[in-house]
Amino acid sequence: MRVLVFARAPVAGQAKTRLIPALGAEGAARLHRRLVLQALAVASKASPGEVELWCAPDCGHPFFAECARRFGCSLHAQPAGDLGDRMRAALETALPALLLGSDAPRLETEALCAAARALGSGHDCVLAPALDGGYVMIGLSVPAPGLFRNMPWGGPEVLAETRRRCARLGLVLAELAACPDLDRPEDLALCPPELLQDLTPAEGG
To answer: Are 37 and 67 in contact (CB under 8 A)?
Structure first.
């Protein structure tokens, strides 16, 4: 089962920007780096040898080469377009596939394994909901471009709208337990403490 991890380069001021008020630019970038490594570790345990890291803005940052060495993942540049365009194009390279971001550190290997089982047992789509009304992982066994076009990404209606679209498209949907993601400073209370170690606002300058 292909497992795709979407990640930006951990550049200060460009990664996890909504966390900069709490952690500073450098601290937010360092946390992002740790989150990407955590996501790749989980993905690699769930699907050894089939993990793909989809990089933004491209694959050139040295961090991505480090990830490839550590986890044996292949590197791919995220295609052009909005988030929905990029997700759809990456997923539909070959199905079935799972796609997750790098901001849900409590998403465990077993959740990915459960998602893979769902796609292998008659489900067309599987979601791991986020607590804020979005989702932290999506999997598809069939092409479903309608799930990604003109979606209000980043808003609280993404999960509900995705459910509605699945029903309208006749897709058999499976859902996993909800999982927190890290978008805003208040979300840091839900982050595993070890990922926040030695991150302080002073590091941001």
So the answer is: yes
